[in-house]
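<instruction>
Derive structure tokens from the sequence
<data>
Labelled lines for chain and fold
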Amino acid sequence: MTPAIELENLSVKFGEVAALRTLTLTVPSGAFLAIIGPNGAGKTTLLNTLTGMSPPSSGTVHVLGQDPASLDGDAIGYIPQVKTLDRHFPARALELVVTGLRPRWPWRLNAADRTAAMNALERTGAADVAERPLSALSGGELQRVYLARCLMRPSKLLILDEPGAGLDVAGAAAMHHVIEDYIAEHNATAVMITHDWEGARNHASHVLLLNKRVVAFGPAGEAGTEQQLLEMFGYTGHLAKTHGNHNA
């Protein structure tokens, strides 16, 4: 089976600044990959490279067996960071979900589209905000709405940029289960940036520790260990490198 993602010596530069350095890894089809790294580690740059928005400076990248720039628009479902979104557009959550089916904004909703959107919102636990304007949604509610939007037209690759931001523990757990169901139902692959180490190890099949280069990559039980996180961040949980017994 064709891997979902193949990177070989991938590097991305912005001017003289290296955002990613010689990444080589293969993500199998059907995987749930969690990307973990400090601020400035190149996590969002990697997602932009996978979607074709940031071309590599050197090396190669293949997504679903193709150059990302040549992929059909429906091949990738994308959930952006909440903090990057302009919510002043006068629209309701239900309308945003329906844009998962239509290339233009759905100023008028037919019964079929409304039913499909409500079903998707039900699955992500956001049905109660369907008629709310986007400006009235919390960060967690908006993340649920965007996830519902992706459910409208299933893609082979689901890319999520910090989807757990703004969610409480129960909400984050529910989101992980929705993603796992999505992967199983549609034979899809999911790639998620997260700062939730425990959630990644409990739900993801693979973990990538990224700090402009591959610090660790592999099955969740092998990558993202306490010691690896400690070396990359300088702390993990209540343990810090400044503690004299961190290797105990």
